[in-house]
UniProtKB/TrEMBL annotation:
Subcellular location: Chromosome; Nucleus
Cross-referenced InterPro entries: DDB2 (IPR033312), WD40/YVTN_repeat-like_dom_sf (IPR015943), WD40_repeat_CS (IPR019775), WD40_repeat_dom_sf (IPR036322), WD40_rpt (IPR001680)
Biased composition (Basic and acidic residues): 1-11, 26-36
Name of this chain's protein: DNA damage-binding protein 2
GO terms (BP aspect): DNA repair; nucleotide-excision repair; protein autoubiquitination; protein polyubiquitination; pyrimidine dimer repair; response to UV; UV-damage excision repair
Species this chain originates from: Sus scrofa
Region span, Disordered: 1-48
Major localization listed first in the record, in broad terms: nucleus
């Protein structure tokens, strides 16, 4: 069955760019209508408006570093400081800067909630976001020009996976409920269809791309995983899980290493060179609940998983089958909420995840805030919580750009850009 014709690319009909002053902002100014794209200027968190709700975050403020980064680098160069100690110092310095992070840009271009996001691999201010209606926003928030808006098919077109093409930064891959995994350009043209189900009962839920191995991997809602080369040739198509494959991830350092997550409550690790069938996995990691995501760390040595209830796990490559580091965290699944997925910071051993307060969670407190939580990847200790009282919804997706200095969040149909307050004022 031939893939459905994609609607033509459009420019977003209206963009409002307004620098904000700290004194004149009101909560309604940060709540644009769903069908408009409103870009807001720098703002503050106005802690006085939150009263006692902010008191719970005060204890998580990171103390100032005891010595300067320049001194730490100098000591490392002289051999007086080990590399792990230097990394820890740099991480503490970064955590200290989170106190100055604010939402300085906000957009609401979709009429349905946002479902996926991806940072550009070479430009730290370009972001792609997909929606439940199949719309895609290509947003360079560093310039005043209107973002590019690619119209989707509407109902049934949800973008479930989004990746820029590592070989051509003006192209991107998508998987969708439309039943295809495809390569598109910034004008919305379909360059190649890698997989097509040919039926409305089967759709694709996840994808990843390897530039070294030149392969595309995609998973569907009935447990199949398909591996293709970048020319579109199918290498294999196997049922690797009993139910929907919610996430596929290739190891950034050993890209023949594949992790697949599923609602069948397992995460499996595969060697692409040795896949022969559904039982040829290297490891099967059972979970107590369905799993939303499985992501390798930037150094490829650890695996981060997010279930659909209250657990974040960190597995180590040295012993995959040993009990993992387990972080208790409320992020339960809700049908009309984009599934919450924890991510790694690209430069530090930090985990970033949105909080969905649960009254049944053992540590839940009255009036608990819907924060973005930052955990240490080794100890599992909470290091910081980001919160803006004017954008207090559930942050389902949160991801830092490759520079590690700007955070993009998805909150319903809103897209939020966090950065240091002084940096945000200059942009």
């Amino acid at each position: 069955m031939a893939p459905r014709k994609r609607p033509e690319t459009q420019k977003t009909p209206e963009v409002v760019l307004r620098p904000k002053s700290k004194r004149n902002r009101s909560p309604r100014e940060l709540e644009p209508e769903a069908k408009k794209l409103c870009l807001k200027g720098p703002g503050s968190s106005r802690r006085s408006d939150s009263g006692c709700l902010w008191a719970g975050l005060a204890s998580l403020r990171v103390p100032a570093p005891c010595s300067s980064i320049i001194r730490a680098l100098h000591h490392y160069k002289l051999g007086r400081t080990s590399w792990p100690s230097l990394q820890q110092g740099l991480q503490q310095s970064f955590l200290h800067t989170l106190a100055s992070y604010r939402i300085f840009q906000k957009a609401a271009p979709f009429d349905r909630r946002a479902t996926s996001l991806a940072w550009h691999p070479t430009h730290p201010r370009i972001l792609a976001v997909g929606s439940k209606g199949g719309d895609i926003l290509l947003w360079n928030f560093g310039i005043k020009d209107k973002p590019t808006f690619i119209k989707g098919i509407g109902a049934g077109g949800s973008i479930t996976g989004l990746k820029f093409n590592p070989l051509n930064a003006n192209q991107f891959f998508t998987s969708s409920m439309e039943g295809t995994t495809r390569l598109q350009d910034f004008k919305g043209n379909t360059l190649r269809v890698f997989a097509s189900s040919g039926t409305c009962n089967i759709w694709f839920c996840s994808l990843d791309v390897s530039v070294r191995s030149r392969v595309v991997v995609t998973g569907d809602n009935v447990g199949h995983v398909i591996l293709l080369n970048l020319d579109g040739k199918e290498l294999w198509n196997l049922r690797m899980h009993k139910k929907k494959v919610t996430h596929v991830a290739l190891n950034p350092c050993c890209d023949w290493f594949l992790a697949t997550a599923s609602v069948d409550q397992t995460v499996k690790i595969w060697d692409l060179r040795q896949v022969r069938g559904k039982s040829s996995f290297l490891y099967s990691l059972p979970h107590r609940h369905p799993v939303n995501a499985a992501l390798f760390s930037p150094d490829g040595a650890r695996l981060l998983t997010t279930d659909q209830k209250s657990e974040i796990r960190v597995y180590s490559a040295s012993q995959w089958d040993c009990p993992p580091s387990l972080i208790s965290h409320p992020h339960r699944h809700f049908q009309h909420l984009t599934p919450i997925k924890a991510t790694w910071h690209p430069r530090y051993n930090l985990i970033v995840v949105g909080r969905y307060p649960d009254p049944n969670f053992k540590s839940c407190t009255p009036h608990e805030l819907r924060t973005i939580d930052v955990f240490d990847g080794s100890s599992g200790k909470m290091m910081y919580q980001l919160y803006d009282p004017e954008s207090s919804g559930i942050m389902s997706l949160n991801e830092f750009n490759l520079m590690g200095d700007t955070l993009a969040s998805v909150m319903g149909y809103h897209i939020l850009i966090w950065s240091q307050e002084e940096a945000g004022m200059r942009k």
